[in-house]
Write a structure and sequence with these properties.
By secondary structure, the protein is mostly beta strands. The protein is built from one helix and eleven strands. The mean pLDDT is 97.
Length: 123
């Protein structure tokens, strides 16, 4: 089955860090732009970090710039999201996904997404 599976979420205090992982099965990540988006209850989805394999460039939304970083390990078929200096407003469900391009990554118009992992930041 073609799928993405996230892990690494949890409860952390404000100012803390987490690293989320997203492992792909039966697909080649390098064929896509990969990224992370989040969605909190009652809020719209927000594209936050994207990686373009064609250019090797990363892109981050203003809300997470300087705090979050996306990286990949193609040998492990895994995409990571390193989250530092977490804030209570970062509390959300986090999803990884594949996209056609970076613009669609930030619009959260994905081909495939995982089931999500929950991040809760306490104040």
């Amino acid at each position: 089955e073609v799928e993405l599976v996230e892990s690494g979420g949890g409860l952390v205090q404000a100012g803390g860090s987490l690293r989320l992982s997203c492992t792909a099965s039966r697909l080649t990540l390098e064929d896509y732009v990969v990224g992370w988006f989040r969605q909190a209850p009652g809020k719209e989805r927000e594209g936050i970090s994207c990686f373009d394999f064609n250019t090797g460039r990363t892109f981050n939304a203003d809300s997470v710039k300087g705090r979050f970083s996306i990286s990949t390990d193609t040998a492990k078929k895994t995409v990571y999201l390193r989250m530092n200096s977490l804030k209570p407003e970062d509390t959300s469900d986090y999803f990884c996904a594949t996209y056609e391009n970076v613009a669609e990554c930030f619009k959260v118009l994905y081909y495939l997404r995982g089931q999500g992992t929950q991040v809760t930041v306490s104040s």
